[in-house]
Amino acid sequence: MRSVLTVAHKELRDGLRNRWVLAIAIVFAILALGLAYFGGAASGTVGFAPLATTIVSLASLAIFLIPLIALLLSYDTIVGEEERGTLMLLLTYPLSPVELVLGKFLGHAAILALASVAGFGAAAILIGILSGQAGDPALWRAFSFFILSATLLGWVFIALAQWLSAAVRDKSRAAGLALILWFWFVLVFDLLLLGVLVLGKGRIGGGWLSAVLMLNPTDVFRLANLVGFGAVREYTGLGVVVRGPLFQPWPLLGVLVLWVAVPLGLALRSFSRRWR
Q1: 241 near 90, Cβ under 8 Å?
Q2: Nearest to 194 by CA among 182, 181, 209, 205
Q3: Which of 162, 191, 203, 222 suits a disulfide with 267, CB 3.0-4.6 Å?
């Protein structure tokens, strides 16, 4: 365990020195404040939007931004060390392949968690003060859940990136596959699903659709942040599509945890088989 924490501390220290945490936190804070204040600009109004509208807008933005940042942070975590010639040196230390991958994952996960808490947390404080909602517990509950779920979404894509990095032999291929992965989960998956629904002309059952949505972590994240608002469920029709005990905020977070665990396990398996 000490070796894992040593590697994680080194990755976190590098992230702080390279200004990763600061840069990501500033981006999150600025975009969150911008969405909260200018979210109604399309309808000709500016000002802080209702809480449900703000969270929905932030969730839509996070689906595009957080996976991309996570993939950029971790796609070369293993293959990059191999190309630089430092991987063999690391493995000469009393450090197993499993400990190396876990340590790198924890380090990158800590970078993203710190950036999410700092960026979105600062935005929540400013929104609460400027909008006069600082004393509203609903604001803090909604933002706390959003930050937690956004962090888990980032961890999912860090784990996926590490799996790619452990499975391929060169950095350029890892970068290309990471980009394909981003397009698949963020854009292509939902477009294909929408096409199937249109071709099905409403004959596809809601139970089938609910199960398919669990195959995309970005959809799980979106649902986790939307189903907690009754008005959003009614307006978007989520109450018809997703029903049952699984489709509540906290069980959906559990699905995200599984999405972290499975690719991380595959990364550990791939790297251990290459270097055993």
Answers
A1: no
A2: 209
A3: 162
C-alpha 172/C-alpha 21 separation (Å) is 24
Give me the number of domains the chain comprises. 1
pLDDT tens readout for residues 73-97: 999 888 888 888 787 777 777 888 8
* Structural domain range at position 125: 2-275
Place of tokens 């365990």: 1
Neighbours of 145 (CB within 10 A): 17
| Structure confidence by residue, pLDDT tens digits, 197-247 | 777 665 555 567 778 888 999 989 988 888 766 555 544 555 455 666 677
For the CA atoms of 60, 119, 51, 209, the dihedral, rounded to the nearest 10 degrees, stands at 30
